[in-house]
Write a structure and sequence with these properties.
It is built from two helices and 58 strands. Strands 49, 50, 51, 52, 53, 54, 55, 56, 57 and 58 form a ten-stranded antiparallel beta sheet that branches. Strands 12, 13, 14, 15, 16, 17, 18, 19 and 20 form a nine-stranded antiparallel beta sheet that branches. Strands 4, 6, 7, 9, 10 and 11 form a six-stranded mixed beta sheet that branches. Strand 49 (584-587) and strand 50 (595-596) form a beta hairpin. It is globular, with a radius of gyration of 32 Å. The two termini are 35 Å apart. 31% of the residues are buried.
Length: 687
């Protein structure tokens, strides 16, 4: 269709009656809609219910008009109409789409999508077809398939009560078994509750089903997490040393808030923690996420299940059954106050820290074990403490660090066993600390960072370090860092383009040695000459406790490097200026991950092309990671209402999620006025 408009100059308008001049003809071209490229889609048990969303640019007909889009799909000889919409996106689920083509077998399938646009006047436009590859990967899983763990812990009786492994969608078996003290710690896996079926053992160290295959054997008593892959003949057995509660319902997601203890009489695990209704929590193991965790329905807990919602506020007793499936969690709550925000840390200059515990009768007035003698790196020390009654799991035993000999002041604990020589973060908690054995020990404590290091009495100062005005001589290469982030301890993690970890796996190596050079303290670690010429990047962190710099730029190892570590930004050379992202955005459109915003000006920032498949929310963050979720570091809406597109809104800290209707948008943030404006993708800046 051709639209003709007449443009008349000002002069022509003034002399319109005296001049017979036709205007210049302008033709506004029709614009076809265009699909946004879509990546390959893997459809498995974890993703079959996920949304599959097609997004496209709008069709334009040269004038303002309503447009109806019809989405179609073709596979083989089949051609389907998926639906119609006036929006510029269309969603279905992965499985619903494949089911329409009767795709049921595993494999790769190229599906062609087409799009037509039509106006009320009957004008049409079509998008160029787009092909998306679907990888269908849903294995056939036997319903409720188990392997029975038969061993001396239950009398070697396949028909008796025992723990089991459960088959999951990835064709692997998962589960726990708890081995008591005093046994052989040996067992086998049986496909039936008898010896007549397939039984798995070890022969020459290899998984075997032969009758003479030997037993599996754990190194010691305790809880094991087992992953068993019968198809590929592999297995993993991980000792579980810590079963914990974590989540804002029990005090926060930064670390585990309470530890489960094993109740041998009832064969369950029990934890005590204040709990708050309306918030969530999970159960995790060994204080890490990358092993496994339990969530979902408390009557049938699932590995990597959803967050568990607390329904009552008060003092909670959590009873966990992981002896056999279904895994369950019972929560008994005595009404009262939920998790309490810890008291502010005291000013170290205003008093003294000291040890108190079962070893001195929990005498808070005892001044014998005060931290007085200064050690290196900001640590204080109290030496040659005779520690008895160190089992923190027993009432009256264990120990803590207290302040100013008064229980009304904050006190600190590791929430469990402290490993000798390892820096351990102490927190305000009702739980006690413990040691593996009684004896005499030296205790090092940093009042600022709350890290504690315990060593045998008389051992070398574990806070380490040396001092000089100039870099010392050394072979190979040395990585120095100025610890502006205040990490205690500080660790270095570096990797090469080839995937080699220069200082081992995450979180790398703790940097204890230092040199004072030109008035600046640099911690350092050495690399041998065999690494010369390698291209690497580096991250500095607080020994894996949750804080780190961002990835550095790439460097070639051909000299000693002097880095600066500032929290949340890329590590950078001491004589350069860091590139620091101004703001980040996180929301439903990117699974709440951090995306640096583009700086259009000193106070204007944007993220373009955020697609919300359904009505969703987002926030602006002034820092990456968990730090950005602090109340004074993120910006949100004053209300929970869906905002108007194209209209700036004021933000507050922390505020609610900024809610928008489904669609694809550019997200603008004015850091001077603290206003957010959401516009349709491709629109001009609203500021």
């Amino acid at each position: 269709m051709k639209i003709v408009k007449y443009l008349l100059s000002a002069a022509a308008l003034l002399s319109f009656g005296a001049c017979n001049h036709e205007g210049d003809e302008i033709v506004i071209a029709q614009t076809e809609p265009s699909f946004t490229a879509h990546s390959d889609v893997v459809v498995n048990k974890s993703t079959e219910a996920e949304d599959f969303t097609l997004v496209w640019s709008p069709a334009k007909f040269g004038y303002k008009t309503d447009v109806e889009y019809t989405v179609g799909a073709e596979y083989g000889e089949q051609s389907l109409v998926l639906g119609s919409t006036s929006a510029t996106y269309f969603s279905t689920t992965n499985m619903a789409l494949l089911s329409q083509f009767a795709i049921e077998e595993a494999g790769e399938y190229d599906i062609t999508f087409n799009l037509s646009a039509v106006t009320p006047a009957g004008e049409t436009a079509e998008a160029k077809p787009m092909v998306v590859k679907f990888v269908y990967d849903i294995p056939v899983v036997v319903e409720e398939a188990y392997l029975y763990i038969v061993g001396d812990y239950q009398g070697w009786d396949p028909a008796g009560s025992c723990s089991r492994l459960k088959l999951h969608a990835d064709n692997k078996y998962y589960g726990f078994v708890n081995l008591p003290e005093g046994g052989t710690y040996e067992f086998k896996f049986c496909a039936e509750q008898s010896w007549d079926g397939t039984n798995y053992g070890l022969k020459d160290g290899v998984l075997s089903t032969e009758p003479d295959a030997g037993n599996f054997k754990a190194d010691a008593a305790g809880l094991l997490y087992i992953v068993f892959d019968a198809v590929n003949a592999t297995y993993e057995m991980t000792p579980i040393t810590y079963v914990g509660l974590i989540g804002d319902a029990v005090g926060g997601w930064d670390n585990d808030k309470a530890q489960f203890e094993f109740d041998a009489e009832n064969n369950v695990w029990v934890a005590n923690a204040p709990v708050e209704a309306g918030k969530n929590f999970k159960i995790r193991f060994n204080q890490v996420w990358d092993l496994t965790d339990l969530g979902g329905d408390v009557a049938d807990l699932q590995f990597k299940g959803s967050d568990i919602a607390a329904t009552e506020t008060g003092s909670g007793v959590f009873t966990l059954n992981i002896f056999d499936f279904p895994y369950t969690l019972n929560i008994a709550v005595t009404p009262g106050e939920g998790p309490v925000t810890p008291e502010p840390d005291p000013d170290p200059s205003g008093g003294v820290y000291h040890l108190v515990g079962g070893f001195n009768g929990w005498d808070i007035a005892d001044t014998t074990y005060e931290f007085k003698e200064a050690a290196s790196n900001g640590y204080l020390v109290v030496k040659n403490v005779p520690m008895t009654m160190v089992d923190y799991t027993v009432d009256g035993e264990g120990w803590k660090i207290a302040f100013n000999h008064d229980w009304a002041n904050p006190n600190y604990s590791s929430e469990g066993l402290v490993e000798l020589g390892v820096p351990t973060l102490f927190k305000q908690t009702s739980l006690n600390s413990g040691l593996a054995a009684e004896g005499n020990y030296d205790f090092y404590f940093n009042p600022e960072t709350k890290y504690v290091i315990v060593v045998e009495a008389g051992a070398q100062d574990p806070t380490g370090g040396s001092s000089s005005d100039e870099p010392s001589e050394h072979e190979g290469f040395r990585i120095y860092v100025e610890n502006k982030a205040g990490y205690s301890p500080i660790a270095a993690y570096a990797w090469t383009d080839g995937g080699e970890n220069l200082f081992g796996g995450w979180p790398g190596t703790v940097m204890t040695d230092y040199e004072d050079i030109n008035g600046v303290r640099y911690y350092y670690v050495d690399l041998g000459e065999e690494h010369a010429g390698k291209t690497f990047q580096i991250i500095f962190n607080n020994n894996g406790a949750g804080k780190q710099t961002a990835d550095s730029a790439k460097f070639v190892l051909d000299k000693d490097y002097f880095f600066v570590a500032e929290h949340g930004i890329p590590a950078y050379e001491a004589d350069t200026t860091p590139v620091i992202p101004s703001f980040y955005v996180a929301g439903d459109f990117n699974s709440w991950g951090d995306i640096p915003m583009e700086d259009l000006a000193e106070t204007l920032h944007v993220h373009k092309g955020a697609t919300f498949a359904t009505d969703g929310g987002f926030k602006i963050k002034a820092a990456a990671g968990q730090d950005g979720w602090a109340d004074d570091m993120n910006y949100g809406s004053e209300t929970t209402d869906v905002i108007a597109i194209g209209t700036p809104i004021n933000t507050i800290q922390p505020g609610n999620n900024i809610m928008v209707p489904a669609g694809t948008y550019d997200l603008y943030f004015n850091s001077a006025t603290k206003q957010v404006c959401v516009v349709t993708a491709g629109s001009a800046s609203p500021f």
